Amino acid sequence: MHQHAYGPSSAGSVVLRLGGDVGALIIEAGPDRLGAEIEISPADGGARTHSMVRERLVDPHPCYHAVYPDLSAGRYHVWQNADSVAAEVEVLGGQITWHAL
Fold first, then answer.
1. Gap between the Cα atoms of 29 and 66, Å rounded
2. Helix (H, G, I), strand (E, B), or coil: what is residue 33?
3. In this structure, what DSSP letter does residue 17 have?
């Protein structure tokens, strides 16, 4: 995982298109993961993709999420590091799947 230093995401900065067999995954993380890039990949094989944990300014407290839009419905591996899977999640079409690390 790489570390980057970006500011918080502003309100309305993430747009999710949901429907049919397209869903989204949001991974909840702690402030200690801010700037980390978390990789996911289809559980049945395929290329990995990553998203950075960003601070989201939400009342009453900020939260820390990595957002994966436009995912095909199916099972995904959430990678802990280059060699280890931390979790397997199922993304459903037309829905947002939430997973906490």
1. 8
2. helix
3. -
